[in-house]
Write a structure and sequence with these properties.
Helix content of chain B: over 70%
Order of helices and strands of chain A: HHHHHHHHHHHH
Order of helices and strands of chain B: HHHHHHH
Number of strands of chain A: 0
Shape of chain A: globular
Oligomer: heterodimer
Largest sheet of chain B: none
Strand content of chain A: under 5%
Structural class of chain A: mainly alpha
Helix content of chain A: 55-70%
Structural class of chain B: mainly alpha
Number of helices of chain A: 12
Shape of chain B: globular
Radius of gyration of chain A: 21 Å
Distance between the termini of chain A: 59 Å
Largest sheet of chain A: none
Strand content of chain B: under 5%
Number of strands of chain B: 0
Number of domains of chain A: 1
């Protein structure tokens, strides 16, 4: 009995428990924020488009998400008979799982974060972004319907193209910091945020990150006019819900990454770090929503052309200039 | 770390075998992806996180995506699965299987003296890899980059509309 008690109160074990607890808090907090974003987005879109949006359930409609969730949980989880069952079930899991995993590298405050010191931090995000493609591709392929397949094909080509320069866009930041770890990148922005020296890196990374989470205006994989609902046409119930929430998890993730990499992360005067991080991240989330409200959807070849002919050269030139500057001021 | 190494090594071998024996092309590719992820995990467990991350980014995240992309476009249906099943007869795999088994026994024999201290050495981070690449291996890196450039130009040429 004493031995067990000693084991349970040993400093190492308690530290592990505290870290696991923190990880769970971050995970659930993020999923809840992502789910709430569905309501926030609809309200904001309503505001900008001069209509109300959902305002019936709860104060200002804030319980709309709860109503939606209850509905979606109790809906029949219908798997059409013509689909490829294992991959059909796997795809939404990959969509949500991979993106949630990527939150582990983000330093939310100096003390809160699962693994902000991971020596391959930025690369870990690229790896996650690479694996995230499978969710849409497999969802599109396994549905065995032409709209889904077209959505899956589009997303594969789009995400592979945009990942190429997304990596290059961040290399400027990595060069200036001299480390892949996100905690080091935040620490390096003590005096000046990386948005100033890495403005073009920010522009290209912001575009690439929208494309990678396939948000509007890069949501060609699910373009309603042409493809019904694209890769998730055949999905329903909670599987569709997972795709939906994964999209918002992606929005929160890339907003948090933009803040961490280019806007000093949790750093800021007077207010505590968590408030700064939350404020900056929510500004980016709102910008993502505003983009959806304001911009029309480009044609598919325009999306690909912009990626390869404009953003890729810009990212390479940015990397070249940064490399030259870093080398000339040791 | 040794447990992680052996576990991920086992997963890698199992997933590779399943990738070969599975008759559905997309499912086989999924097993191959799992195998590559397991190999990345092996890299992590022996203290090479940079190599592990590149394994996921380049192989699992880019090359395999293109494989899946092509297989999706080919629209292989039940006919392809049936054909694969016809080809996968014991006559076809017993010979190569025995040869591979012999090779594996030899490899285990060759590697066995190093097993005691082989796993969990010094951690090689991105900086160490960079210094090695642009120090002693500079010429190889440059040659590889020229080869890639040539491949890029060739691909552009072939994909051109006339």
């Amino acid at each position: 009995m004493n031995a067990i008690l000693e084991f349970l109160t040993a400093p190492a074990f308690v530290a592990i428990l505290v870290e696991v607890g923190k990880g769970l808090v971050i995970l659930f907090g993020m999923v809840i924020v992502a789910a709430l974003l569905i309501w926030i987005e609809r309200r904001l879109l309503g505001l900008w488009q001069d209509r109300y949006g959902p305002n019936r359930v709860g104060p200002f409609g804030s319980l709309q998400v709860v109503a939606d969730m209850i509905k979606i949980f109790f809906k029949e989880d219908w798997i059409p008979p013509f689909v490829d069952k294992p991959t059909f079930i796997l795809a939404p899991m990959i969509a949500m799982g991979t993106l949630m995993l990527a939150f582990m590298i983000i330093p939310i405050t100096p003390t809160w974060g699962v693994a902000p010191d991971l020596s391959i931090g930025v690369l870990f995000f690229f790896a996650i972004a690479g694996l995230e493609v499978y969710a849409v591709m497999l969802g599109g392929w396994s549905s065995n319907s032409k709209y889904s397949l077209l959505g899956g094909l589009r997303s594969a080509a789009q995400m592979v193209s945009y990942e190429v320069f997304m990596g290059l866009a961040l290399m400027g930041v990595v060069m200036q910091t001299g480390s892949f770890a996100l905690s080091d990148i935040v620490a390096a922005q003590k005096d000046v945020w990386f948005i100033v020296p890495q403005f073009f890196g920010f522009c290209t990374f912001a575009l690439a990150s929208i494309a990678v989470v396939h948000r509007h205006p890069f949501d060609l994989p699910e373009a309603e006019q042409e493809l019904a609902a694209g890769y998730h046409t055949e999905y329903s119930g909670m599987k569709f819900g997972m795709f939906m929430v994964a999209e918002y998890v992606g929005v929160v993730l890339v907003s948090a990454l933009l803040v961490t990499l280019f806007f000093g992360g949790w750093q800021g005067p007077v207010l505590p770090p968590i408030v700064w991080f939350g404020l900056k991240t929510s500004i980016f989330v709102i910008i993502f929503i505003l983009l959806r409200a304001a911009l029309p959807r480009p044609r598919y070849d325009q999306v690909m052309g912009a990626g390869w002919k404009f953003c890729l050269p810009l990212a390479v030139i940015n990397m070249l200039v940064t490399g030259a500057v870093v080398l000339s001021n040791p | 770390m040794e447990i992680a190494f052996y576990l991920s090594g086992f997963v890698a071998v199992l997933a590779t075998v399943l990738a070969i024996t599975n008759t559905n092309p997309v499912h086989a590719l999924l097993y191959l992806i799992a195998s590559l992820l397991a190999v990345a995990m092996v890299f992590f467990s022996i203290g090479a996180p940079f190599a592990g991350a590149l394994e996921v980014i380049v192989y699992a995240g880019a090359i395999m995506v293109l494989f899946v992309f092509v297989v999706m476009m080919l629209n292989l249906g039940q006919a392809a699965i049936a054909q694969e099943r016809r080809w996968l007869t014991p006559k076809a795999w017993i010979g190569p299987g025995i040869l591979c088994g012999v090779l594996m026994v030899e490899m285990i024999r060759v590697l066995s003296p190093t097993i005691g201290g082989g796993i969990g050495g010094a951690v090689i981070d991105g900086k160490a890899v960079g210094i090695a690449l642009f120090g002693p291996y500079l010429l190889v890196v440059e040659l590889a980059s020229m080869l890639l450039l040539a491949a890029l130009v060739a691909a552009f040429h072939m994909g051109r509309h006339d």
